[in-house]
Each structure stands twice: as C-alpha cells, then as structure tokens.
Amino acid sequence: MKILLETRHLTKHFGEIAAVEGISFSVGRGEVYGLLGENGAGKTTTLRMLATMLQPTSGSATLAGYDLVTQPEQVRSRIGILFGGDSGLYDRLTAAENIAYFGRLNNMEEAQLEERIRELARIFDMEEYIDRRAGKLSKGMKQKVAFARSIVHNPDIMLFDEPTSGLDVGATRNVHEFIMDCREQGKTIVFSSHTMSEVEKLCDRIGIIHKGRLVAQNSVAGLREEFQGKNLEDIFVELAGDER
Amino acid sequence: MNFRHVWIVFKKEVKDIARDRRTLFTNLLIPIVLMPLLFTFLGGGMEKMEEDIENISIALTAESDTAEIRELLEKQVFADFPNIQFKESVENPSEAILQKEVRFVLEVENDFADLLARGEPYTLTIHYDQSDTKAAGSMGILNQAIQSYSRQLVQQRLTDLNIDPQILEPVKVVQVNAAEENKGGNLMLMMMLPLIISILIAVGGIPAATDLVAGEKERATFEPLLTTQAGRLSILIGKYLTVALFSFVSIIAQLTGMTIGGIISPSFFTMADGGGSMSFFIPPGALLISILIIIALGMVFAAIQLAISTFARSFKEAQTYLSFLTFIAMVPGYATMMMQPEDLRPLMFFVPLLNAIASLKMSLGGVINYAYLGIGLATSVVYVILSLMLAAWMFNKEKYLFRN
Ligand SMILES: Nc1ncnc2c1ncn2[C@@H]1O[C@H](COP(=O)(O)OP(=O)(O)OP(=O)(O)O)[C@@H](O)[C@H]1O
Ligand SMILES: [Mg+2]
C-alpha cells in the first residue's frame, strides 16, 4: 500500500503546554486512520498541523509527497477538511456559491468548477436547493453542502476532526457514510474522535492519543490481541484512565 | 500574496455583506435618510426661532394706555417695525407675560410729553420674562428701536441748538474685510465635517470587520478557508479591502445625505455663519490631498478593525472592542471641533487621526498651508503601512487565530 501521509515526531507546544509531543504515524492510500483521545488529548492540534493551520514546534510530516513545513501550499492543494459537527457555511451565499468559493480559492477554472458543482449536486442529491441560500436550508441539507465543499477540489487526503460532535443519530450516520464513500474512492483519511464505537466501526487502524502522545497504535483486531482480547473501551481506559 | 486570490476573497465578501440588510441599513440607509431629516429638523428649528423672535407682541399697562402714549409708541418709536404688534392693555403685567398673552408689557410716564418738552428724561419701563429665550432675543430688537428713536431726538435737539450732531461722534470706525469675498470656509462644515467623517469611518467598517474574522471563526468557516490554497496574506488583504470599501460607502452615503439635507434646508449650514453664506471653496490641490488623507484614514481603520476582530474571542467581544474604538475615534474630532484653521499646530499633522482631522479642517477653512497638508498625507501613508503590518502580524499569530 502506498503511504500518502506520514508524520515524524510531530510536536506542538503552546508556551508551557505540550499539546502534541512527538507523534509519528503513517496512513496508506484508501486507509482510514483513527485518532482516539479524550478532551484535550491533542487531536485537534494534530489535525490543524496536518492542515497547515498551525506550525509544528518540531518534527514534520509528508502529505501526498509534499513536506508540511516547507511546502504548505502544495499540501493544502491535496487536502480537504471537515472540522467539528457544524456545517460552517456562509448563510447569505447559495449552496453553489459556497462550494464555488472554495473551488476558486483552490485554483479551479470556472468551467471545470461549474461542471464539478453539477456533479456534486447530483452525487449528494442537492439539485433542488443548490441555488438556495445556505441560511435557508435544513440541517441535513447544510451538511451535504459542507461535504461537497470539502471535496470540491478532489483532494487525495481528508482530515476529519470530530466530525460527528454534537450531531444527532441521522446526521452522524451521514458523516459515517461520507467517510466510507471517501475511502471507497481511494482517499486517505485521518479521523479523530473520542467515541470508541465509531472509531471501531470506521477505522482500519487506530492511534490512541493521550496528553499529546501516541500511546498505542494498531488495527482494531491488533489492539485487542495486544491487550488480550479486551474490548476497545477497556483498552482505552487502561491506557488513558491511569489518573482519572 | 496572490492577486487572484485577493480578488476572489474580496468579491465574495462584498457580495456576502451586500446581502446583509443590517449592513445596508447602517452603511447606506441611515446616512442618506437621517442626515436630511436632521438638517431639516435643526435648520427648520433655527428658522422658526428667528421668526418667533422677530414677531413681538406688546401690551401697555392700563394706566399707560392713553391715546397719546399709543401714538408715541406705534407711530414713532416702533414705526419701522411692522412685526411688533400692540395688544389690548393689561391690568397685571407679570401675569400677562407669564401666561404668554404678550411677550412685553410697556409702561410710560403719563406726563412724558411735558418732560420731553422740557428736555428732561422720562421713564419707559419694559416688563418681560428674562428666562424666556425668545423674549431675551426680542429685547435686542426693542432696544435697537428705542435707541434709534433716542438718537433721532438727540439730533433734533442739537440741530435746534445749532450744534452739528457730528460732535457726538469723535471717532468714525471703518471696517475693511481683508479676505477676498468667498475665500473663507464654511464655519459649520469646518466644525462638523472632520468629526462626522472620522466617526463614520470608524463606524462604517464595523459590521464588515466583525463579520469577516470574528464572525467567520464563530461560524466555523474559518478553518476550511485557511486550508484552501489562498495564502493568509491574500485572505487578509481581500478582507481588508472589503472593510475599507464599506467605510467609504458609508462616508459617500453620508456626504450624499448632507448634500440632500443642504439643498432641502440650507439654513443648517448658514446658521453658524455670520454672513449667512452657504458657499465655500477648497483649492483643487488641497481637495485632492484631503480626499487621499480620508482614504488613508479609512484604510488605517480597516486594518485596525481587522486586527481587533482577529484578536477577539467571539463576535460579541469584537463588537464591544470595535464600539470602543469608535469612541476613541470621536475624541480628537470633538477636541478640535471649535478650532479655527489658524489654531492648528504642526504637531497635530503627525498624530494619527488628528492629522486627518487637521488637514480636513484646514482645507475646509480655506487658509491652506501645503507644507502641513503634505505632512498630513505623508504620515497618513506611514500609518496605513504600520496598521497593515499590525493586522498581518495578528493574522499570522496562531495564538489569536485559534483561540477556540
Ligand atoms: N491555540 C491554543 N493555545 C493554547 N493552548 C492550546 C491551543 N489549542 C489547544 N491548546 C491546548 O492544547 C491541548 C490539546 O488541545 P486539543 O484541542 O488539540 O485537544 P483535543 O484532543 O482536540 O480535545 P477535544 O476533544 O476537547 O477537542 C489542550 O490542553 C489545549 O488546552
Ligand atoms: Mg478537538
């Protein structure tokens, strides 16, 4: 399997706080990698570094062959993100305008972009409301627009940071389906969560992150084996719960 | 920086904000509608007041109400004042005045004619309400009438004595206006415009500035935006131009409103002006420099407002900080409101904001020192650069950008 994302001792300090401390992992094409951790473990910080929003204090990563620190623009051209459960749209723009804005900023040509939006509208079944203002759409519709926006430029790598936080059952399932679709299309996916069940359901491999450090890393089955058949929840408690 | 990205961001932000009724309301509607209303109200009020002061109602006390005294007052003392009306005589002067039946009650000694004939002074008593502004204003008119009547009597007496009346006027004063006609600026504009423009520049950018960073963070659109291929500086500049544009839109709307107001109610501009002239003249060079300085000021505010919006933890917090900034922006405007162009000091042309206000005041005042205006323009450009550097620095600071 071709490695599309690899982090090397990725570290981020905010003053005294070591938010992320020497994290190294790699993810192959079409693989879903889950970062599992409690509140404040460093998941968002890790993903923000991978998305070039934060500069690593030390260490680096390679995404789709580009170096995170020295080629951030090229890295950004290959990634799509969905951070948090909020759809995060511009209410006064239409669904199509929302998507188009991100397409243009990713250097897509107008003709190509128009074609792509039509395609996305069909894939996500948004044709009916694609020209309606985002503020007037239902939650479910907004969610689809946000999905479409994140992949408008057809990125190789998708970064999801707790994409189901605060969502109801239906919306959560939509996110899961979207992740599985991305995987089927061969995208490389990093996905963070603090919910065992969803990580177990979606991920090929899991990294357990605790206080900024990667404390265990394996496939679900591998982890179970490593920890003598315990379920994931018990493993997590054992690794993370030492001082709870 | 990538100009294509700047343009994409700018276009999107302008479209987005232009679709916001709230912004259109503050930036366009209020200035265009409110100013003419304000002018009509203030200007109309002034006109009404002047009219009221000129229309004077007078009564005599019952004892003074003789044909002789009426003849004296109506045909002689106040003969040239058609706006002075004589009413029925009153028993109780204080009551009649406090009840607003008449503005003045006059009393004249009944044997005034004898005293006059003998060349002795007689007494004319005026009852009025000193606390009544209109009465105080009208009093001047009465005094003027009485004095001119007295002067006539004096001249008559001197002529009768074969003395040249000029003996009473040892010095003759001649006033010559050294300034060319119309060269002077408009006092009202000079007082108000710098203040109004600095307030508007500060207020006009607020909705855009809050929305464009603090709002974007809160709506969770900011992180996707930062992961597009547009660099941070391009995003910032696109937003910056938007905020500046909306400041200018509100100034243009305001000036349009003022022009409409001035046409509807010119008395607003003339009321503080002795000569009552509405016209003023700014040399083209000074006008151009003033416009450039105003534009620079708008850009400085846009940059500072974006920096504040980036710094703020939330939309609400950004709004609070920005309204405080508006308050700060008002201080130099108020502090210099009463200043005349000749009171301006060179130092003022170096201080941020004050430099713009001073330059504007100088141009509107019509007494122009191009060296000072040049300093004002040069320092403005320096402040544009400094403020933009501040905004860029803030926009690159992870600590402020991601405060969750
Ligand atoms: N911009 C920042 N400035 C200072 N400290 C920060 C910043 N962002 C995160 N931190 C700190 O870094 C640590 C890791 O935070 P992070 O948000 O990455 O955790 P997380 O795993 O995403 O948690 P959650 O499940 O709550 O989202 C926390 O202690 C947090 O307080
Ligand atoms: Mg997080």
Overview in brief:
The complex is a heterodimer of chains A (244) and B (404). Chain A is of the alpha/beta class and 244 residues long.
Structure explained in plain terms:
The complex is a heterodimer of chains A (about 240) and B (about 400). Chain A has about 240 residues and is of the alpha/beta class. Chain A contains nine helices and ten strands. In chain A, the strands form two sheets. Chain A has a six-stranded mixed beta sheet, sandwiched between helices. A four-stranded antiparallel beta sheet of chain A has the order 2-1-4-5, with helices on one face. In chain A, helix 3 packs across helix 4, helix 3 (about 95-105) packs parallel to helix 5 and helix 5 packs parallel to helix 6 (about 170-185). Chain A starts with a strand and ends with a helix. The model of chain A has no long low-confidence stretch (mean pLDDT about 90). By secondary structure, chain B is mainly alpha-helical. Chain B has two domains: about 5-45 and about 185-400, no CATH class; about 55-170, abc type-2 transporter like fold (3-Layer(aba) Sandwich), CATH 3.40.1710.10. Chain B has helices at about 5-20, 20-55, 65-75, 95-100, 110-120, 135-160, 185-205, 205-220, 220-225, 230-265, 265-270, 285-310, 315-335, 355-365, 370-395, 400, and strands at about 55-60, 85, 105-110, 125. Chain B is elongated, with a radius of gyration of 31 Å. The interface of A and B includes residues 44, 80, 84, 86 and 92 of A. Bound molecules: adenosine-5'-triphosphate (ATP) and magnesium ion (MG). Magnesium ion (MG) binds near residues 43, 44, 161 and 162 of chain A.
Q: What is the topological layout?
A:
The complex is a heterodimer of chains A (244) and B (404).
Chain A: E1 3-14, E2 17-28, E3 32-36, H1 43-50, E4 58-63, E5 66-67, H2 72-78, E6 79-83, H3 95-105, H4 110-123, H5 139-150, E7 157-161, H6 169-184, E8 188-193, H7 196-202, E9 205-210, E10 213-219, H8 220-226, H9 232-240
Parallel strand pairs in A: 3-8, 3-9, 6-7, 7-8
Antiparallel strand pairs in A: 1-2, 1-4, 4-5, 9-10
Helix pairs in contact in A: 3-4, 3-5, 5-6
Chain B: H1 3-18, H2 21-54, E1 56-60, H3 67-77, E2 84-86, H4 93-98, E3 104-108, H5 112-118, E4 124-127, H6 133-160, H7 187-204, H8 206-218, H9 222-226, H10 232-264, H11 267-270, H12 284-311, H13 315-335, H14 354-365, H15 370-395, H16 398-401
Parallel strand pairs in B: 1-2, 1-3
Antiparallel strand pairs in B: 3-4
Helix pairs in contact in B: 1-10, 2-6, 2-10, 7-10, 7-12, 7-13, 7-14, 8-10, 8-12, 8-13, 10-12, 12-13, 12-14, 12-15, 14-15
Bound molecules: adenosine-5'-triphosphate and magnesium ion.
Residues 43-44, 161-162 of chain A line the site of magnesium ion.
